[in-house]
Amino acid sequence: MPTYAEADALMKEFTQSDALRKHMYGVEAAMRAYAKKLGLDEETWAITAVLHDFDYERYPIPPEHPLKGSEVLAERGYPEEIRVAILGHASYTGVPRESLMAKALFACDELSGFIAAAAVVRPNKIMDLEVSSVKKKLKDKAFARNVSREDIAQGAIELGVPLDDHIGFVIDAMRNDAERLELK
Question: What is the pTM of this model?
Answer without folding.
Answer: 0.97
